[in-house]
Amino acid sequence: MKARQALMLAALAASAGLAIFGDRTPGGGETVEPAPRPQPAAAPKSAAAPAKHKHAPTILALLPREELVGPRDEDRPASTLFAAQTLDRAPTAGAAQAPVAAASGTPGLPFTYLGKKYENAAWEVYLAIGDQTYFVREGTVIDQKYAVNQIRPPVLTMTYLPTKQQQTMTIGGEE
Fold it and tell me: Range of 130's domain?
């Protein structure tokens, strides 16, 4: 046994002995009493309104919404608190092709970009449609409608299989 271990064992034995055989009487026997507080001067009570509290509660009337924020303008959006925002970089030349493809009978990409990962020398991109999440790599076919051709951040290239039209999606740069 090393000296350090022996010292720790001795300290443990000493503290166990104190806990078991030590003095258990309360120390000193002194009790601390609360400090005396001066009594407030008696407030003169009026005969008209005896009140228990210094300030009687006041209930205010509710104001109509139109008085508070003005009339609702139907042309103005209700709130922009949760408006859609994009943090993508400026659209690339490939991203400008998507509206042209939509005019030729190809629907726009229905996917929402969730993220990407670089693993084993290949990119994996996470896409979603509603509640369904897809993990795609190059060569993946999604619902027999879309084939992933190329993943080269900041762009993902897909083919809409019924019309053989290529579409691109911005997925951000290499991070």
Answer: 112-170
- Residue 54 in 3-state DSSP? coil
Q: How many CB atoms lie within 10 A of CB 108?
A: 12
The Cα 170–Cα 172 span in angstroms is 6
Tens digits of per-residue pLDDT, 13-44? 999 999 898 877 766 667 778 888 887 766 55
CB 147 within 8 A of CB 158: yes
**C-alpha 6: how far from chain center:** 51
At 52-98, the pLDDT tens digits run: 557 777 787 888 877 777 766 655 555 555 555 555 555 544 444 44
Total number of domains in the chain = 1
Q: Is residue 21 part of a domain?
A: no
Beta strand ranges found along the chain (DSSP E): 112-119, 122-129, 132-136, 141-142, 146-152, 155-160, 165-170
CA–CA dist 165, 147 (Å, integer): 10
Question: Can you say whether the dihedral through the CA atoms of 103, 109, 112, 116 is positive or negative?
Answer: negative
Residue 159 lies in a domain: yes
